[in-house]
Amino acid sequence: MRISSIKALYFSATGTTETVVRTLAAELSRSLDAAAGVYDFTTPQAREETRTFAPEELVIVGVPVYAGRVPNVLLPYLKEKLRGTGGAAIPVVLFGNRDFDDALIELRNILEEDGLRTVAAAAFAGEHAFSETLAAGRPDSEDLAIAGQFAHAAVQRIAALERLPETPVAVRGETPLRPYYMPRDRKGDPVNILKVHPETDREKCTECGLCASLCPMGSIDPADVSRITGVCIKCCACVKKCPVGAKYYSDERYLYHQHELEEGFARRTEPVLFL
Fold first, then answer.
1. Is the pLDDT of residue 2 over 90?
2. At residue 119, what are phi and psi to the nearest 5 degrees?
3. pTM for the full model?
4. Cα 24 to Cα 196: distance, rounded to the nearest angstrom
5. CATH 3.40.50.360: which residues of the chain?
6. Confidence of residue 76 (pLDDT cuts 50, 70, 90)
7. Which of 13, 88, 184, 264 has its CA 20 to 30 A from that of 119?
8. For 229, what's the count of Cα atoms within 13 Å in the CB-facing half-sphere?
């Protein structure tokens, strides 16, 4: 079957998902000799637009893994604003070196329900949002080389098809989906950080407003960047991208969870590919 163009979409607060999706889009574009359009739906405004995909378009959708699942704040956009008409799709997730649990199968199922046919899928490791040491610097050159190989393998699979399969690509995960991952302390009690949000070091902050413009939930008040006006999803865009290091977390529960992740999952995980 022929692909006329590639549409690549991603949510990427700190750039890891963006890096993988853009690499895949570029490699697929070269291999298929098809133009690629790349769309970033990280900001609230970008998630207001409905996108409809033609049957001859190949759609790549990338999201990060939050607590082993697709971030629940993205579900309205993914379920209501993406419309397929029977074309091919590749779901991609980025996980912070722990595991992707049911995120990939969840994203795959959503795209199928949107009217797309999933022909390949992948999970890549990326530097954890909470940490500068857990999967630090990833995706790295090795990951991106594997992404390129995956793109070529996907092209070969698509080229061999006379028509798209009715059965979704087989991926790792469970049905029904498991609950969101909940960290626990050494007594086995839940460590709930849902309402935790970053703080601002007033001595460092220059009131540049960058953090407010970066927040994927629009929850940082641009008139007073120390004020959180809505949901914080702990994406850490404001922490990692602040040019003067003025944003930080001090909540004991958050720091406990961060340290447990860094100590328990300090190993190299490899991309997991499904074709």
1. no
2. -110, -15
3. 0.97
4. 34
5. 5-178+267-274
6. very high
7. 13
8. 12
Which residues in the chain are classed under CATH 3.30.70.20? 199-250
Distance CA 92, CA 60 (A): 7
Overall size of the chain counted in residues: 275
Residue 94 DSSP class: E
Res. 1: pLDDT tops 90 = no
Strands (E), the chain: 5-10, 35-40, 51-52, 57-64, 82-83, 88-95, 117-118, 121-125, 199-200, 247-248, 272-274
Maximal C-alpha separation, the chain: 63
Q: Is 2.40.50.100 the CATH classification of the domain at 199-250?
A: no
How many helices (H) and strands (E) the chain has is answered by 7, 11
pLDDT, tens digit (0-9, with 9 covering 90-100), for 116-148? 999 999 999 999 999 999 999 999 999 999 999
Q: Are 69 and 177 in contact (CB under 8 A)?
A: yes
CATH architecture under which domain 5-178+267-274 falls: 3-Layer(aba) Sandwich (3.40)
